[in-house]
Amino acid sequence: MQSTTINSDYSANTTFNETPNYTQHTDKSQLSSLTKDESLYLNKKRKSWKFINPKNVFIFRDQPIGIFNHLLHIVSFLICSLMFISYLYLPLNNELIIDVGTYRDITPFERLVRTLLVGLVLFNLNTLKKKLKAYPVKRYWFAMASNSLFKTVILTLYYLLFLLLCAAFIGATQGANLFSAIELFGQSAQYEVFLIINAIILISIIWHSFSFCRKELKQ
C-alpha cells in the first residue's frame, strides 16, 4: 500500500518536471536583427512617394501620410479618373452619315462591358471605404485609391500598346498601314471573339490593380 503511494507521487513529480520549457527553446533565427542595408531599404520604401504601388501603401499603412503627399494623391486620383472615363466613353468610333449625322458604332456587349468596368472600380472603392470604417487610417483612402487607379491606367496603356504593335505587325504582313489593319480587323468575324477576350483582360487588370483595396487593414 505504501509502495503504491510512493509510485504515484513519483510519477506525478516526474510528469511535472518533464513539462517542456518552450521559453528555453526559442528559435534564434526569429530574433535576428535587420542589417544596415535592410534598414536603409525599409526606411527608403517607407518614406518614398507612392503613386503606382498600392502594395507599398498597404504594407506601410500605419506610416503617416503628409499633407503634400495627400494633395498629390487627390490630384493623381482625379487625373486617372478622367483618363479612365475618357478611355471608356470618348466618341472615338463615331461615324458620319450624310444627311443623318453621327452615330456611335458600339454593340450592346461593349456597352455592358464598359458599365461592368466602371461598376467594378466603384465596388473596390466602396469595399476600401468599408475596410476603413473597421480600422480607420488617416488619409489612406485617397492614397490607396489613387495608386490602384494609377496602376490600372498604366497597365491598360501597356495593353493598348501591345494591341497596336500586334495590329502594326499584322498590317505589315498584309501590306496595309496601321489604321487600315485596325479597320479591316473590326469588320472581320474574329472581332467578336476579340471583344470577349478584351473584356476578360480589362476586368483582370482592374481586379488585380485594386486587390489591396479588398484586404483587411487590421492584421
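The above is record 1. Record 2 follows with the same two-line structure.
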Amino acid sequence: MDELVARVRHALNQAGFEVFGGIDRRMPGLQVSETPAGVLVAWAMSDGFTALAADQPGGDCGDGMRVAVQAAVSCLMTSLGYPVMGRPNGDIIVLVKDGDAG
C-alpha cells in the first residue's frame, strides 16, 4: 500500500498540487494518507481563505472550492486508471486496484 500512497502523492505533485503527508485538518492543502480501502486524499482550506469565503455575498464559496478540488483530484486519478470514491465531506478515496494492495 505504501507504493500506492507514493504514486498518488507523485501524481498530485506532478499536477501542481502541494501535498502533505498524514491528515491534519488544521493544516491547509491536500493531505494524503493510507486507509484500508486505498489512499485518502483530503483537502483543508486555509484560515485566510475560509475568512475570505465567509465575507462573500451569496453564500459560502468554500463549498464550491471544495467541489472544484474534489473534481480535479478525481479527474486526475481516474485519468491514470485509478477508481475513486468521493465522500460527503469532500475527501476522496483512491481505491486499491488489483495488484496494488501489496
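Residues 61-79 form the longest helix (19 residues).
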